[in-house]
Amino acid sequence: MSGAGMIEIADGVFIRRQTELDLTLGFITGSGDSLLVDSGMDPALAAEISPSRIVLTHNHFDHVLATEAFLPCEVWAHEDCIVDETLLESRARYYSDPFEGTLIPPTHTFRDTVTLDVGGRRVDLHHFGPAHSSHDVIVHVPDVGVVFAGDLVEEGAPAQAGSDATPSNWRNVLDRMLELEPRIVVPGHGNPVDAQFVREMAVPAVD
Ligand SMILES: [Zn+2]
Question: What percentage of the chain has pLDDT greater than the value 90?
């Protein structure tokens, strides 16, 4: 399920496209240090990269199951990001085989915003309120204008709202994200897009 390797979308900022669920991971490098945005579902990636930190954009199974393969490393997430067996229930709707790994909960959490130093490079984590989940994290690399949006944005498929989503706040969160003036927005699934795409995308309906 690996695919075509790392694609550099800005200086030292990469994405890893995975055919499985069209998932998109992020990889941010600094001087002698690196950070992975979502661990995904493919432990084999850990043979290629050794990030000192993983940031989980939210707790949906496809974004978090491979964390164990990258240990030891810090696992960052919003303080409301719970990684436990309950997320395997949604995996069971996609895959009949049991999950054989160990679920790794976050080791480092934040509430509104935190700034990380990735080998001399500034990376900001933001939470702008509930939308796709209760605890969506937006990862911003200001020096190149790249934002990793998690599943707040999807390319190639509509944005998805499950029972843990807050569609009524979705546009508000996107507007806060656009205030960062991103040049490139990386969705949780699909190819990178621009700010105009985010401005015009449909958000899930409030039911
Ligand atoms: Zn999700």
Answer: 95
